[in-house]
Amino acid sequence: MAIQIAMIGSEETLQQALTLAKNIEDIDISPIMYLSPQESSSLLNLTRQCDVILFSGELSFHYAQKELARFNQPTLYIPDDELSVALTLLYISNHLKINYNQLSIDLTDRKYLYEVLGQFDSESSIPFIQDYPWVKEATGRSFQIESVIARHVELWESKQVSYVITSIHAVYDRLIKLDIPCIRLMEPKKNIIEALIKARNLGELSIAKKSQIAVGTFVFYSDKPFAALEIELENIAKLTNCTVKKISSQDYIIYGTRSGIEYLLDNREVFEKLFRTLNDTSSTVNVGFGYGMTIVEAEKNSNIALSYSQKNKKKNIFHVVNDEQTVINPFQNQERSSILQSENMNLIKIAKELGISVTNLHKMIQFHQNRPINRFTSSDISEYFGIGKRAAEQILKKFSVKGYIKVIGEEQPHLNGRPRSVYRLELPNI
User: Fold this and answer.
1) Packing angle between helix 189-210 and helix 258-266, nearest 10 degrees?
2) CA-CA to 78 of 20 to 30 Å: which in 181, 224, 371, 399?
3) What secondary structure letter does DSSP report for 376?
4) Do 290 and 366 reside in the same domain of the chain?
């Protein structure tokens, strides 16, 4: 099945991408053209039937960032980088015979330019540079194309430059109309191909996750029968294409797919309506949803999620544990965070020091952050990590040897059972 990629960009980039895509398997591009990157936000509604949204550049992505929160698809953009700059400068010097000190340039980040000039070992420098590295982040700062154009025009009219390099198609079009000599920052085929392949991979991963099995466990607490309970659950099941199974008058299980449950996370009013109804009858519910590639894995994660919700049976609480063992409380606006990757060098350093994976260190941090008090036993670790008690004790030993876990007491689990240590996690700020 081909991954449907909605690509938002200028006409030239779209045409180039469509040509290159013919040699890439399992992708189908839906081109969405703009005249200016500022239009990218208003064009997002045309992407809803696609698996991935690909922007032709960082600027178009910047203009769409605020609206992207309403969309579930993975998003990415084709970056400008050192290769883009190098190809353009080589063309400028070898074909146009223009000295670098006669140039005005705008680009995402001037570090790419400095890197290339350093590699060229060039004595020339480009005196007039406009960059905007902050567009990669959701800073709330607005980008003004008109100011970029105005600066190029000013330099040209004052005869301080003889040529302009721009990374923005809309700027190029305006300068051409003003008869100002300019060139667009070149878009290497390599960058476009890599972005298309990455978009395909993200789409495949997204589809795989959405088709994961989801199991939801509902435990109700009420002093009197709640007649409308099953109706409410059936309504939720219809919205999410799930199946409801009644275990007892208090316990219910929903079986479905991850995409259905994520619909609930994006439309919280469904659960808020259930919570209001329960409050009106002095009842409460604890909910735990789990995702997994198999029913067994999803049920295990559902039980872990429920254990977090059941820490307060007097409140309506909802937790989710995904296939990466990350705990999410949607009603506390906790961001979903992947535990498979980390750019935090301190985190990587500690994981190496402990002799464990970054994934397991992330799990321990998530475990700590989602507990009301910093107090736990090896059984808690065993349950959360989904591993045996001996494996849990081995993990704890590694933390203890490095001083990241302290024994703060003992507890007696059973009348005749062996006392077990109670621990406190003492990781540095990561």
Assistant:
1) 100
2) 181
3) B
4) no
Cβ atoms of 261 and 214 closer than 8 Å:
yes
CA 221 vs CA 171, 229, 255, 310, 331: distances in Å = 63, 11, 21, 11, 19
In angstroms, the CA 290 to CA 383 distance is 14
Cα 306 to its chain centre, rounded Å, is 25
Select from 288, 311, 332 the last residue of a domain: 332
Phi and psi for 125 in degrees, rounded to 5?
A: -135, 160
* Beta-carbon contacts of residue 430 (< 8 Å; ≥ 6 apart): 344, 346, 347, 350, 365
Could you list the residue range(s) of the whole structural domain that residue 278 is in? 211-332
Burial class (CB in 10 A: 0-12, 13-18, 19+), 422: middle
Beta bridge partners of 320: 289, 328
Pick from 319, 313, 316: nearest CA to 278: 316
- As a whole number of Å, the CA-based R_g of the chain is 28
- In a domain? residue 268: yes
- CATH number for the domain spanning 115: value is 3.40.50
pLDDT in tens, the chain (430 residues): 789 999 999 999 999 999 999 999 999 999 999 999 999 999 999 998 899 999 999 899 988 988 887 887 889 999 888 999 999 999 999 999 999 999 999 999 999 999 898 887 666 788 899 998 888 765 667 788 999 999 999 999 999 999 999 999 999 999 999 999 999 999 999 999 999 999 998 888 888 777 789 999 999 887 665 666 778 888 888 888 889 888 887 889 999 988 888 887 777 787 788 888 787 778 888 999 999 878 888 888 898 889 888 888 888 888 998 877 678 887 765 444 433 334 456 777 888 888 887 767 877 887 887 676 788 888 888 877 777 788 888 889 999 999 999 988 877 655 455 778 889 898 876 5
Q: What is the CATH number of the domain that holds 222?
A: 3.30.70.1230
Asked whether residue 55 falls in the same domain as residue 196, the answer is yes
Question: What are the structure tokens assigned to 291, written together?
Answer: 């995702």
- Do 66 and 199 lie in one domain? The reply is yes
User: CATH number for the domain including 59?
Assistant: 3.40.50.2300
Decide if 62 contacts 207 (C-beta within 8 A). no
Six-digit token string for 390: 């001996």
What is the pTM (predicted TM-score) of this model? 0.61
Which residue in 131, 126, 176, 171 sits closest to 149, CA to CA?
171
